[in-house]
Amino acid sequence: MPSSGSPSEQPTDPQDSKAGPCRRQELEHRLRDLQTDRDAYLELAAIYRSENRPLNAAQTLKKAHEVFPNDASILWEWEEARLARSMQQLGEVREMAAKAKSALADTELERCQTDWATCRISVCQARIARDPEMQHLRLVLGEALYDMERYEEALAELKPLEDVAQHSSTAAFWQGRCHLIMGNDGEAMRYLRNASLRRAVPTHTKVRVAALKLLIDLAERHGLTATLEQYQSTLASLLEAESNAAVKASSS
Please, which domain of life does this record's source organism belong to (predicted)? Predict the structure, then answer.
């Protein structure tokens, strides 16, 4: 979720005040009488979030944004609450669909997955438009566009990250997945190799493992025996190193 890089001014932490039902009710009553209390909106929304009620937080912050349309902190927190609510709803429906195993539940799950991707796209695009320095959000944006099957758009959003060492490998992974599903196997292999085999660029282990598994599938499909063995060997070494690191960490 695109939550880093927030404005310097943060909402009141409910842990620093009389957080809880009494304080929440006090703030709710206050905002009914005085709808221009900026800090009350932010504190109330923070309490709602601490109570796992992102819908209430989003509704409160929407009202605050209407009163203070140029307040960057309120806008940021409203976006965060919308993302949290969308994620919460997706989790709830996913759990329901797993239990119900019905066409109706599956349809509802698809709707929530679309809503989650749409919310990420909307928020990321708005934040990048406000602050072009927030290029890391292009990773979230690219993944969300991939989920929406908007592969060309995802590739366009990820391309600026090719020259950003910190994010280039993860961007290459999603670029490779886009090309793979579009049927461009040659381009997919090129990007997936960049995601998994470039030692000079920092790459998260999960990204390398996922990229190597896709490369193995591609090599098998195209009968690239020598390349297949290389990918399999690299993956085995990577998994062994990860396992050894986990054992060492648990014993220390």
Answer: Bacteria
